[in-house]
């Protein structure tokens, strides 16, 4: 069983990676940290992502040890600068 | 009535202010954030705001809800803009009203400070020399990353 998730990249992450969105299949039981490791393990440019990025799962800020479920939307949130 | 909106349309401050106020309110306050022409000694020609729109709308609503506590009323209207903005353009507007001014000032300040801490919005400054750079931001609380550093280069300057 795999866990398909949709990952979103904004601002500086999108610029550096050259993509705004990726669909990724993870092994069941995977956490956000596993997703980060999978991406960083792809090498350049994905290894530019921080080891511990801020993330939101389904639009809610989440911890890296949060388990993922099929269909989750995982957004990588660079340091924010609104206002 | 709480109003929270994230849009690429220009912010209509009169409309925002008109959403708050009531017969019991003696104070109504409008704060606007405006794109300025300089940053850290560099001349700025404009700014690009990126946003995670679905999430930002929810977070903005949450912030407004929390601001009802210092405000003592639910009369808050807040709008954040995204897209390409010019010098002088309004990037954020916050209207609040309450029976007395102290609560209005406190709530308005709370909303803008919380926006800067946790609204999923990013801005890229365009400088007069043609270079652009993402503004160094704040790691939002709630993700368990307090004290983390951010190492991704924020500009194309010096990159191949």
The number of strands of chain A is 5
Helix content of chain B: 25-40%
Structural class of chain A: alpha+beta
Total domain units of chain A:
1
Q: Rg of chain A, please? A: 12 Å
How does the overall form of chain B come out from the CA principal axes?
A: globular
Beta-strand content estimate of chain A = 25-35%
CATH superfamily membership of chain A: Beta-grasp domain
SSE order of chain A, one letter for each helix or strand: EHEHEEE
Total tally of structural domains of chain B: 1
Structural summary, described in words:
The complex is a heterodimer of chains A (about 80) and B (about 160). Chain A has two helices and five strands, in the order E-H-E-H-E-E-E. Chain A has a five-stranded mixed β-sheet. Chain A is α+β, with helices and mostly antiparallel strands and about 80 residues long. Chain B has one domain: Aldehyde Oxidoreductase, domain 3, CATH 3.90.1170. Chain B contains three helices and nine strands, in the order βαβββαβββαββ. Chain B is globular, with a radius of gyration of 17 Å. Classes of the chains: A alpha+beta (about 80), B alpha+beta (about 160). At the A-B interface, helix 1, strand 3 and strand 4 of A face helix 2, helix 3 and strand 8 of B.
What's a quick, concise take on this entry?
The complex is a heterodimer of chains A (83) and B (160). Chain A is an alpha+beta fold and 83 residues long. Chain A has helices spanning 11-17, 32-40, and strands spanning 2-9, 21-27, 54-57, 60-62, 73-77.
Please give a handful of descriptors for the protein shown.
heterodimer, A: 83 residues, alpha+beta, Ubiquitin-like (UB roll), 5-stranded mixed beta sheet, 5 strands, globular, B: 160 residues, Aldehyde Oxidoreductase, domain 3, 5-stranded antiparallel beta sheet, 4-stranded mixed beta sheet, 9 strands, 34% strand
């Amino acid at each position: 069983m795999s866990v398909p998730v949709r990952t979103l990249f904004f601002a500086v992450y999108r610029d550096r990676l050259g993509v705004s969105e990726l669909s990724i299949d993870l092994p069941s039981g995977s956490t956000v940290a596993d997703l980060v490791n999978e991406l960083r393990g792809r090498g350049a440019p994905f290894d530019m992502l921080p080891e511990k990025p801020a993330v939101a799962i389904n639009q809610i800020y989440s911890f890296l040890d949060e388990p993922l479920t099929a269909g989750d939307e995982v957004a990588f949130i660079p340091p924010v600068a609104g206002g | 009535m709480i109003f929270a909106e994230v849009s690429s349309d220009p912010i209509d401050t009169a409309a925002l202010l008109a959403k708050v106020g009531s017969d019991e309110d003696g104070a109504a306050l409008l704060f606007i954030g405006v794109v300025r022409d300089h940053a850290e000694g560099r001349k700025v020609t404009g700014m690009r705001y990126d946003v995670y729109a679905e999430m930002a709308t929810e977070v903005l609503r949450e912030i407004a809800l929390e601001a009802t506590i210092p405000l003592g009323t639910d009369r808050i209207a807040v709008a954040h803009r995204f897209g390409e903005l010019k010098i002088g353009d309004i990037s954020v507007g916050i209207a609040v009203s309450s029976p007395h001014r102290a609560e209005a000032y406190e709530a308005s300040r709370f909303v803008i400070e919380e926006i800067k801490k946790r609204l999923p919005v990013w801005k890229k400054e365009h400088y007069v020399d043609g270079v652009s750079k993402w503004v160094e931001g704040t790691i939002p609380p709630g993700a368990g990353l307090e004290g983390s550093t951010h190492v991704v280069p924020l500009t194309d300057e010096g990159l191949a």
